[in-house]
Structure formats: structure tokens, C-alpha cells
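User: Quick one: structure for sequence A, then sequence B.

Assistant: Sequence A:
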Amino acid sequence: MKYKIPFNKPFIVGKELYNIAQAVQQGRLSGDGEFTRRCHAWLESHLGCNKALLTHSGTGALEMAAHLCGIQPGDEVIMPSFTFVSTANAFVARGAVPVFVDIRPDTLNIDEQKIAAAIGSKTKAILVVHYAGIACAMDTIKKLAARHSLWVVEDAAQALLCRDGERCLGTIGHLGCLSFHETKNIISGEGGALLINVPELVERAEILWEKGTDRKKFYRGEVDKYAWVDLGSSYLPSELTAAFLMAQFDEAKKIIEVRKRLFAYYSERLKPLADQGIFQIPAVADHHHHNGHLFYLLLASQDQRSRLINYLKQASIYAVFHYVPLHSSPAGKRFGRVAGGEMTVTDRISERLLRLPLYFEMTTNDIDFVVAQIESFFETESCL
């Protein structure tokens, strides 16, 4: 079905195709060329991390983080269940056990007050997810992690250029992971980045990134030949991906401003219904500097959500629910466990949350159309 208002629409905003042509003319299509280095420099400069490395995906960045944390079979990693499968998969692939903790009802992030009870003798790391670009309670989490000598990894896939106060998300923990999938704000089709915030991890990260070799040292003239020295894989993306991404980085400020305006317009148009208690919309605290990544409704029930999805679909609007909680999925039950009893908030949110279309080329007229259909639906509901 062709939708008048799709859920997402990949876009070109500047010199993407020009950069790709430049990469081809330079005769460097494999990774770690000029555009890769420019992307690294942009991330390090704009985010303030010690070192950035592009990866072929956000999943790849998470896999590198699991390696760098020294995850071994049987180690436990505390994380929310309300997240994408890659958050858990990257650590399960190394034999770790995901320990799922419930989320907060306001930010939909891991509930920092419930983490301590989940820490045990096998706990190796705390993996936080900044849902919708809203910061987790990082000060509390970092203090708790320091007390127990745990790694802190930030899944900041949705949080590029978001801040908690003056700190960019992804640069607060030991490691941060970004995604440039076509559904994100800044895109390269597939792609991601690992942010390394501990200088002592940089050398090993480069080795992992270069298939377990010290080729980066060779390129810098630090060794006269490179060799296989450790575990690793081919995590770096092609130069064509980096060329596309660099053009997006050049326009990142504009892209974020557009999305935040669309987010604000959704909030303005839907506030009257939210004020009536018909549904909830995102509430962003002043100290949370978000990036307009997504806009959602929290509806009264799962059944109502299904009816609204179908109603919007009839108007050629594609709205989607979000994650099936990992703790209730087949693999989650097989590989992980729940800490602290019930996952009440996670279950309740996952059943009622509906993501509305939001993409760079969307217009306020598009939003007016979506809102009109939502209003029409609830007028119909009131007559049932």
C-alpha cells in the first residue's frame, strides 16, 4: 500500500551524491578514507568524545562495546527490556545474560532506582538506552556503576546531538553507540559509530575495528608492518557510506531544527486532546535537550491503539507501535531474565504506545492532516 503520509522517508539534504562521486573519483571505496576521517573528526569535535569510529551499523557499535567491556560467557548486563533487539543481541552473542529492569513512566528510560537490586556477583555492565533522545539519569547510574566497578555503555542510537545539561549523550558513560539507519535523524542508509570516552580503550578499539590487526598503527608510521594481534572484525563502513554521512553531518543543525519544529507542532496540535485526558503525549523536561527524533501517543489500551492504527491506515497514514519488550519475546525468555519482579511499566507502555509519522520532509500541512484524522477517530470513539 502506498501511503500519503509514510511513517518515515529517507532524504537527501545537501551534497550526498556529490560526496559519493568525489569518493569514486579519488579511487577509494573501501573504508577509512578521507570521508571516514572527516566523519570521525566531526563526531569528536561536536560531541566531545575522546575517539569516534564509524561502524557498519549501530549493532556493530554495540558489538564492539561488548568486546571492549571484556564480556565473557555467564556475565550479566543490566538493561531495559523496552529497546530494540540489537541492544541485547550484541552482548548475548558473547555469552552474556541480559538482566531486564523496568522503565520509568515519564521518560520511558531504565528506572535508575531499580538498578541496584539487579546487581549481583556476575554483573559486568549497565547498558542504558536514551529513548527518543531523552537522557537517562546518568549521574545516578554512573555513581552506582563506580561503586560496583561496572562498565556503563550508552545506547544513544536515537540521541545524536542530544544533551543532558552540557554533556552530549553517548559521551557520559565509558562507551557510546550511535546509529545512522535510515529511520534516524542523521542517516547513511545503514551505519553507526562507537564513541570511546576512556583513552585507555582507544588502541584496542582501533584493533577490533580493523579486523584484529594493528593496521591503524601502520598507517600512522608507528610500526613497519601490520599483523593480526587480537580479536576483531570488519566493523568499518565503506567510504561511500561515509561520504553520504558527511554531507548529512554538514547539515545536521538544520536537520535537527526541522525535526524539533515538527515535534513542537505535533505537541501544539495534540495538546487539547491530551489535556482532556484522551491520551498522553511526550513531556520533555527543560534540562533534556532532545533532537525531535520521534513523537508518540500513549493511548488508553492496546485495543484502542489497534483501532487507531487501522483508522489512520484507511486515510493512507502509516503509524506504528514500537518495541515488543525483550523480556516477553522468545529469545528474551531464552537468553535473559527479569530483575526485581514485575515489568509493570514496560508492559503497560509497550501495549499503548503509538509512534506517529515524523521525517525531515514532512510539512505542517501533513501534520494537520494526521491530527485531523486522529480527532475524527476520537469523535467516532465517543459515539461508540
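Sequence B:
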Amino acid sequence: MKSHLSVLLAAALVFTLSGSGGIARATSSGSGGPRLSIGDTWTYDSGLKITFLRVIADTRKATASGREKGNAAILLRLEAGNQEPKTVRLRTRLGRDFVVIAANEFPEGVVGIPKSYVIRVASLSPGGSKRGGLNQMRAYALRLAVEVAQ
């Protein structure tokens, strides 16, 4: 219930981050975050750190028409506010896959709606091969989109 409420409150405001590898900072325009390689960390809005851990599956295949079918799954480590770090799995295509994480957890007895982040995959390259299957891990580059609900 709590995560559904956070999703409903997610604002249409999307921040874009710039930077290459390592740690990136928020900027005010664009449509996706920085390009992350395996092991890179993105610090967003000073309240969220996202680390791209690895690609765990990649069944994407290029079709004869140049379109891509299939799906890929990635692992991210999320560190938000006063919470313990969490490892989450996101998919690239099937459904509208996203994760919602509150900036902070309230102490027992405190009621309110916390600022929350909605995180989804904006792109994962390289695209699928004609045969599908995992590419070499160092070849992957990830862009994430983050929306903030306050």
C-alpha cells in the first residue's frame, strides 16, 4: 500500500544528470541520467545513491526490421537517507518496470508521506544481438530516469 501511494504521488518532474562514470550530480534539463558502466555510482539529489552492479539477464534480440525484442534485467544498489542499502532488480522492457524508494523512513509513531524516488531504466546499451545472450559486462552502459514525489 505504501509503495502504491508513493507511485501515485510521483511528480512528472524528471531530473537529468550529467557526467561520465564515477559520481554524477543533478542538473536541470534532458531526458535521462548519466551513462553508467558496471560499478559506477550516481548521486542524485543528495538523498539517493545508485550503483550499477551488473546485468543478470539479457534476452534482447535484434529483428530483421531493426527493432528489438526481448528483455534485460539489471541489479542496482540503492542507498536512500536513513535506510539500509537495498539491492533491487529492474527490467528494460517487460511492462513498465520501476522501483519506488522513500528518501527516509519515519520513526515509529510518526505519520506522513515521505519524499520518494521512482527509478526506471531509460536505456541499456549495447542493444540485443541477433542471437541474444549476455554481452561482456564491461560493454554495458546504463541510463536511468528518476522522478521525485514530494
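Residues 1-30 have pLDDT under 50 and may be disordered. The chain is about 5% helix and 45% strand.

User: Thanks, that's what I needed.
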